[in-house]
Design brief:
Elements (H helix, E strand, L loop, with lengths): L18 H25 L3 E8 L5 H8 L8 E5 L5 H4 L5 H4 L8 E5 L8 H4 L5 H21 L2 E9 L2 H13 L9 H7 L2 H14 L4 E5 L3 H19 L11
Parallel strand pairs: 1-3, 1-4, 2-3, 4-5
Helix pairs in contact: 1-10, 2-10
Length: about 250
Amino acid sequence: MSKIKLSDHPTTPPSDLKKKKTESKTIDMIIKIGELQNKLYAEGKQSLLVVLQGMDASGKDGSIKSVFADCNPTGIDTYGFKKPTEEEMAHDFLWRVHQKLPRKGNIMIFNRSHYEDILVQRVHKWIDDERAEKRMRAINAFEDLLQFDNNTRLLKFYMHISYDKQAVELQERIDDPSKNWKHKADDWKEREHWDEYMKCYEYAINESEVPWHIVPSDKRWYRNYFIAKTVLKTLEDMNPQLPALEPEK
């Protein structure tokens, strides 16, 4: 199998798609996702883990807010992985991840994930290539355990935003007062390592046993459509069933 090169993948929608028509389809899919999530929660036998990974301003928060808007908050959770705490650093790198996995019947969304430990740490040379490769093997074993031993379906999305579009989004956080709270000077510093991040993302994508979905993310309307379509198909394949009323003994 040929290696994935991110530069070969578009960050924009297909030219033949119409925005308004696509947005209408997305709304329909979001409603269906909510209906299936309700069945998943009631059934309580399987779970879904959604991983959103990507550069700063690639649309992780916006995707969560849009795609899962019709879900019942009781059966869905979101967790954002940030810099490890002192307690987390005192354990193996997957320790903090295990604690956030979805229980049966639930959907859990990771905003960033266990992949941070072979991305950020590798880009900044806090770990060497050998340790990154060992962690990659551990991640594959971990994800295999989730799917085949815990009945958890896993969806991994790489939010594929272009270098130029990221600059626009980061600048908007400065220019738009309603988005000032999102601005972090460190995001601009991380941007300086763009090429190295692309290499590390390509490594993670190519070495993963569970495939990644590469999401063209320059246009929000298509980004949401792409993710909603994939989530909906996955839930349909999981085919959760509402429990029937048990007969009286």
